[in-house]
TrEMBL record:
<feature type="region of interest" description="Disordered">
    <location>
        <begin position="109"/>
        <end position="132"/>
    </location>
</feature>
<dbReference type="GO" id="GO:0060070">
    <property type="term" value="P:canonical Wnt signaling pathway"/>
</dbReference>
<dbReference type="InterPro" id="IPR028118">
    <property type="entry name" value="Chibby_fam"/>
</dbReference>
<feature type="region of interest" description="Disordered">
    <location>
        <begin position="1"/>
        <end position="22"/>
    </location>
</feature>
<dbReference type="GO" id="GO:0051289">
    <property type="term" value="P:protein homotetramerization"/>
</dbReference>
<dbReference type="GO" id="GO:0005813">
    <property type="term" value="C:centrosome"/>
</dbReference>
<dbReference type="GO" id="GO:0036064">
    <property type="term" value="C:ciliary basal body"/>
</dbReference>
<keyword id="KW-0175">Coiled coil</keyword>
<dbReference type="GO" id="GO:0060271">
    <property type="term" value="P:cilium assembly"/>
</dbReference>
<dbReference type="Pfam" id="PF14645">
    <property type="entry name" value="Chibby"/>
</dbReference>
<dbReference type="GO" id="GO:0045892">
    <property type="term" value="P:negative regulation of DNA-templated transcription"/>
</dbReference>
<dbReference type="GO" id="GO:0055007">
    <property type="term" value="P:cardiac muscle cell differentiation"/>
</dbReference>
<dbReference type="GO" id="GO:0045444">
    <property type="term" value="P:fat cell differentiation"/>
</dbReference>
<dbReference type="GO" id="GO:0033504">
    <property type="term" value="P:floor plate development"/>
</dbReference>
<dbReference type="GO" id="GO:0036126">
    <property type="term" value="C:sperm flagellum"/>
</dbReference>
<feature type="coiled-coil region">
    <location>
        <begin position="74"/>
        <end position="101"/>
    </location>
</feature>
<dbReference type="GO" id="GO:0005814">
    <property type="term" value="C:centriole"/>
</dbReference>
Length: 132
């Protein structure tokens, strides 16, 4: 036992004050918006004279500069671009098919020329077109 009493006896700490003395956290969202003006609206920005607003996860032009494209025109251009890409894919497929047909015809033509150079087959009077 220590001579002058227990030296390690810390003083009790006073109770903590509440984190916020305001009762705003008790209000519902609509009341807070009315009281504090928290209705921000949609985010907008201005870039190079063009005003943009953020709606549904996309930036949409509100007002355009001369030469700017509005939303309907952009959608029309996207649809037209999609149609042209599909048409381009179809035309590429047709070109591939035509090239395959051309290579097959060329190969058959070379085979026929070689058969004609050899001469007629021994023992037969068949025309080269009938030999396959």
């Amino acid at each position: 036992m220590p001579l002058f009493g227990n030296t390690f006896s810390p003083k009790k700490t006073p109770p903590r004050k509440s984190a916020s003395l305001s009762n705003l956290h008790n209000l519902d969202r609509s009341t807070r918006e009315v009281e504090l003006g928290l209705d921000y609206g949609t985010p907008t920005m201005n870039l190079a004279g063009q005003s943009l607003k953020f709606e549904n996860g996309q930036w949409i032009a509100e007002t355009g500069i001369s030469g700017g494209v509005d939303r309907r025109e952009a959608q029309r251009l996207r649809r037209r671009n999609q149609q042209l890409e599909e048409e381009n894919n179809l035309l590429r497929l047709k070109v591939d098919i035509l090239l395959d047909m051309l290579s097959e015809t060329t190969a058959e033509s070379h085979l026929m020329e070689k058969e004609l150079e050899r001469g007629p087959a021994p023992g037969g009077n068949e025309a080269p077109e009938d030999i396959r």
